[in-house]
Amino acid sequence: MNTHPYLRAFLAGAFVPTLLLPVMLTGFIVSRLVFEVPFPIERGLVFPMALVPCLWAIWNMLWLGSHERTHLPVGLHGTLLPLLLMPAGATLATCLGILTIGTHGVTWFQNLYVPYAWIAPLFLAALAGYYLAWKYIVGYVNRVLGIA
Fold first, then answer.
1. Three-state SS for 100?
2. What pLDDT, in 10s, does the model give residues 55-71?
3. Would you say residue 49 has pLDDT above 70?
4. Three-state DSSP class for residue 3
5. To which H or E segment does residue 6 belong?
6. CB 129 within 8 A of CB 74
7. Strand order in the sheet with 112-115
8. List of residues 6+ apart from 29 with CB closer than 8 A
9. Number of C-alpha atoms within 13 angstroms, CB side, residue 91?
10. I need a surface site. Which of 68, 98, 134, 143 has the fewest CB within 10 A?
11. 112-115 and 105-108 beta bridge pairing
């Protein structure tokens, strides 16, 4: 009997972003329509909402396929994902005109300025969040589905 471990790994990886992205979308809609945030958040939101669950799922499949050789814990493997996503996202946002890189910081949507001194702590917080989500949530779903 074929148990389809990669299909289960795909579903386990897509679980977390599929649950969190609608909550984030609600927050963005409330900030845009209720609090009248002056910049178009939706321009930078639609593409990641379609892409991130698939990337998490494929990343979990990659972990399953490489775990026999690398013995890398799922939390540490998940922490490596933002090291690929953030530079790729910044490059895409720059190409689409959503992000402007300046000498002392970046500007989102020609309105929101973020100094470079804030980017490093935000990046470290994202790494910590990814580590915790992958270790506790994706790892748990992997165990429930019998692939960990």
1. strand
2. 999 999 999 999 999 99
3. yes
4. coil
5. helix 5-33
6. no
7. 99-101, 105-108, 112-115
8. none
9. 6
10. 68
11. antiparallel
**Structure tokens, 54:** 């698939």
CB atoms within 10 A of CB 143: 12
Q: How far apart are CA 59 and CA 25, in angstroms?
A: 23
Hey, is 145 helix, strand or coil?
coil
3-state secondary structure of 99: strand
- R_g (Cα) of the chain, nearest Å: 17
Instruction: Find where tokens 């309105």 sit.
Output: 111
The structure tokens listed for 146 are 């019998």
Both tokens of 2, joined, read 């074929």
Tell the burial category of 90 from Cβ atoms under 10 Å away from its Cβ (0-12, 13-18, 19+): middle
7 alpha carbon, distance to own chain's centre? 20
What pTM did the predictor assign? 0.85
| Residue 99 CA: distances (Å) to CA of 24, 30, 114, 138 | 20, 22, 11, 31
